[in-house]
Design brief:
heterodimer; A: 303 residues; MetI-like fold; 12 helices; elongated; B: MetI-like fold; 2 domains
């Protein structure tokens, strides 16, 4: 904003209310949104780019991500191999782009699954005392096992398959959602409007549906974004240590695991998937931060 | 104090029992017949049956669980399928690097993250605050092995300041021990610093808006004592709570960091065990780490009374 355009009135008011003051040119609705929630916009935009890459991976100048060309192995980045090639001569650019699919699929699946299951468990526990006593003890136990170790132990039981990875990470994340929902339910049950609904004879399912569920939505959405971010990291870690998606699938963790042996001489194989993973997780975390500020006013005032 | 401590200790026993139950169930439903694996390819079905009977694998779940708990209480975590060594012995051999890594990481994190959070809260809204928040979101987003490779590439390969990989036992001298651990510790700290700095900042902001802080300022206490005496002591309880909870991600991070820097610790033991499907070792390590985590949080609970004498229940 150029300062020369400010009228004396603006100058007089500006120091008192720097952020709330409307700009001279009225913003459109999109502009307003960006202004009020810059982190949601930035995170959402970055995530949209990665979604685009995941969906249109075959049309973005990629080759077959599994095609081997031993004669052209471990090439540095060049015009032919934008991100270089790995030790089997596979195109790292194509592998990294296709890897976006696995990461986003795992992140979104875990976020959605653990939210639904956690919501269910949390609601039941919040309303039924005897279930609460048993289920919450189990949740405490699950939460006492560090989540990556729990996922590792579960993966050791099954074949490496991305669906099993989703299940393993979901089991580790569900207790967090369940605890969150249960906490919200227990507070809401004490609210006068819920007591009023109970007193006027509203049935429990209707109370849950009308009065409880809408209030759990905001914290769950925020929690789900952070779960999505941590699930993507956990998936990469599992693949990296050889307990995740099968090595035939180009996931970012697998590409890094394969590049590991050569990273001191050919760092590009590890660098590009690492960059993509970090940027994607960063985007989701930004989105989560922004959503929390927008949806949870109690926490927002702290930030 | 003593009753509080006794109650807290008593409260961890059921948690540990549930953890033990969950971890045992994992091995119980593990695919593959341990008896057949031990017997080998040449064994007849009768041999396999004999081994199964001698190992007690033919008895019901509850009996086997009770026996297993009894053995664990006596320090016996079973035997590796692969090396035939006792799991307790294998963990004992590799515990020093892991403990060194985690203790140094905790110390570094607290020394870096708490001042960062205090500074951000004291200068709320300024560039210092924004910088701390930016660093902290980035710290969350960059996975631990990415930080590890970056550290090793810059500080070991390019600048040649520290060894790239490996571990030197503390018995061979503090200097070599430390120089091998610098990069892994910084790596493992990155995400932890991000978490603790954020929580410290949020808690400090809340405490700084309290009446007694205003009173302290009004009677002329200068900024530094207000921050570090009045505010930080009251912000300590939430911060150490998160440090305790964060030990879970620290354990997960240690597994990865040990792989990146080729440190022969318990984390590497787990990774190797997974590749070999050595279930008793996986089970033993997961159980050990979970108990460690529960005990750390018990310690945190007991620390509360130091920082906040009102806590008595």
């Amino acid at each position: 904003m150029s300062t020369t355009l400010l009228s004396p009135v603006d100058v007089a008011v500006a120091p008192a209310l720097p952020d709330v003051l409307p700009p001279r040119r009225a913003r459109g609705r999109v502009g307003m949104f960006i202004h009020r929630h810059p982190t949601i916009f930035a995170g959402g935009l970055m995530l949209a780019v990665f979604l685009f890459i995941a969906v249109f991976a075959p049309y973005l100048g990629t080759a077959d991500p599994t095609a081997i060309a031993p004669a052209r192995r471990t090439r540095p980045p060049s015009e032919l191999f934008w991100f270089g090639s790995d030790m089997l001569g596979r195109d790292v650019y194509s592998r990294v782009l296709y890897g976006t699919r696995i990461s986003l699929a795992v992140g979104f699946s875990v976020a959605i699954l653990s939210s639904i299951i956690g919501l269910f468990i949390g609601l039941v526990s919040g309303f039924t005392r005897w279930v609460d006593a048993i289920v919450m003890r189990i949740m405490d136990g699950l939460m006492s096992i560090p989540s990556i170790l729990l996922a590792i132990a579960l993966m050791a039981l099954t074949r490496g398959d991305w669906k099993n990875v989703v299940v393993a990470i979901t089991v580790a994340e569900v207790p967090r959602v369940a605890r969150l929902v249960r906490g919200v339910v227990l507070t809401l049950r004490e609210q006068p409007y819920v007591e009023a609904a109970v007193a006027s004879g509203t049935r429990v399912p209707k109370i849950i549906w009308k009065h409880i569920l809408p209030n759990t939505l905001a914290p769950i959405i925020v929690q789900a974004t952070f779960i999505c971010a941590s699930a993507m990291i956990t998936e990469a870690i599992l693949s990296f240590i050889g307990a995740g998606t099968p090595p035939t699938i180009p996931s970012w963790g697998n590409i890094m695991a394969e590049g590991r042996a050569l990273w001191q001489v050919k760092p590009h194989i590890v660098f590009f998937p690492a960059l993509f993973l970090s940027l994607t997780v960063f985007a989701v975390n930004l989105l989560g931060d922004g959503l929390r500020d927008a949806l949870d006013p109690r926490l927002a005032k702290r930030i | 104090m003593l009753t509080y401590a006794a109650k807290r200790v008593a409260a961890t026993i059921p948690v540990m029992a549930i953890v033990a139950f969950l971890v045992f169930s994992l091995l119980y439903i593990a695919p593959g017949d341990p008896a057949a694996i031990i017997a080998g390819d040449q064994a007849t079905p009768a041999d396999v049956d004999r081994i199964r009977e001698s190992l007690g694998l033919d008895r019901p779940f509850v009996v086997r669980f009770a026996e297993w708990v009894w053995r664990v209480l006596n320090g016996d975590l079973g035997q590796s399928i692969f090396t035939n060594l006792s799991v307790t012995h294998m963990i004992g051999q590799r515990i020093q690097p892991t403990v060194s890594l985690m203790v140094l990481t905790l110390i570094l994190t607290i020394c870096v993250a708490v001042p960062m959070g205090v500074a951000a809260a004291a200068k709320q809204g300024t560039w210092i605050d924004r910088l701390v928040m930016m660093v902290s979101v980035s710290g969350f987003s960059v996975p631990v092995f990415v930080v590890g490779y970056l550290m090793a590439y810059v500080f070991a390969l390019q600048l040649d300041l520290f060894p790239v990989q490996g571990y030197t036992p503390i018995a061979n001298g503090i200097g070599p021990w430390l120089s091998n651990l610098v990069l892994p510790v910084v790596t493992l700290s990155a995400a932890f610093v991000a978490l603790i700095a954020r929580v410290t900042r949020a808690t400090m902001l809340e405490v700084l808006s309290q009446d007694y802080v205003r009173t302290a300022r009004a009677k002329g206490v200068s900024q530094r004592p207000v921050l570090f005496v009045h505010a930080l002591k009251n912000a300590a309880v939430p911060v150490i709570t998160v440090i305790g909870l964060g030990v879970a991600s620290l354990i997960g991070g240690a597994v990865v960091t040990e792989s990146v820097f080729a440190i022969p610790g318990v984390g590497r033991l787990i990774v190797d065990a997974i590749l070999r499907r050595d279930y008793p070792v996986i089970q033993g390590c997961v159980l050990m780490f979970s108990f460690l985590y529960v005990l750390v949080n018990l310690g945190v609970d007991l620390l509360y009374t130091v920082f906040d004498p009102r806590i008595r229940y």
